[in-house]
Amino acid sequence: MHEEKKYSIFHLEGGLGKHVAATAVAKCIKNNHQDRELVIICAYPEIFINLPYVDRVYRIGNTPYFYNDFIKDCDSIMFKHEPYFTTEHIKKEMDLITNWCNLYNLKYTGEEPELIFNIRQKQLAHNKWKRDRPVLVLQTNGGPLQEQPYPYSWARDLPYDVASAIANAMKDKYHIIQICRHEANILPNVEVVMNPMSNMELFGLLLHSEKRILIDSCLQHAAKALNLDATVLWVATSPDVFGYDIHNNIVANLPDNPTLPDSYLFDYNFTGEIHECPIIDEEVFNIPEVLDNI
User: Fold this and answer.
1) Residue 214 to residue 138: CA distance in whole angstroms
2) How far apart are CA 39 and CA 73, in angstroms?
3) High-pLDDT (> 90) share of the chain, %
4) Identical fold at 6-103 and 119-293?
């Protein structure tokens, strides 16, 4: 045995928002196996580095001698199952974090997502995001830069008419910062943030915002992890699965029985395949209602 050490090994894949949600799962693993060091293998190690219950973090594909150090002749438990392909997730019967912990046979006691900034990250966020007026973060687009075929994903992004109405209503009181993809439609009277930056720089924006209007993307998970409320607009994904009670969740008006010839395990693709869009000429969101909620 390697110095009699015991390990919990948590391997996760997927997007940035899923990684933020997974911090709750990591804490649950540690709480259930306190005698084991927690080792994480993931795509975004920076999300876990400052968490006190995480002992080691590796980036996927950069795990030299991992088998010898943590598997061979070691007392290790592996946590690598994918929650997205469980019955409970596919049928939208349970929120992501609870389902993920149940999948690992963990006793879930309400652990929540968490982000911790070190002192330099806080200083950089202050220097980057401090403005003369209160900041309103308005996220209109999100998703992976490479895998999403269209600049606007109808399934998750904010419709332009809704976004522009929000910007127009809030422009006199707030300095509005729009978060979007580089191909997205730019709103009037806003500062646009579309260029790549470090993930902790992006999340640092939330620390310096007074109001947050978001979509189902990484920032709504980060807002929860920082215990910040937000208004989150949902189109084809569900706040019951991916959302949080701390937020004001507004759900779009979609047809009850859409025709989905190419859907397999899920009703809609995150990337918003055009032929699957069920909206003909209906109003996705009631704009006056959205503005009243905000």
Assistant:
1) 6
2) 16
3) 79
4) no
CA distances from 249 to 211, 231, 237, 290 (A): 14, 6, 11, 10
Tokens coding 65: 């001698």
CATH number of 119-293: 3.40.50.2000
* CA separation, residue 39 to residues 57, 91, 225 (Å): 6, 31, 20
When mean pLDDT is compared across 138-142, 246-250, 260-264, 284-288, the lowest value belongs to 260-264
* Nearest CA among 174, 168, 152 for reference residue 277: 152
Task: Locate 40 and state its tokens.
Answer: 């994480």
Structure-token pair, residue 252: 């779009």
Please state the domain extents for the chain: 6-103, 119-293
Q: Quick: pLDDT tens for 50-74.
A: 999 999 999 999 999 999 999 999 9
Domain range 6-103, CATH class: alpha beta
* pLDDT, tens digit (0-9, with 9 covering 90-100), for 137-183: 999 998 765 566 777 889 999 999 999 999 999 999 999 999 998 88
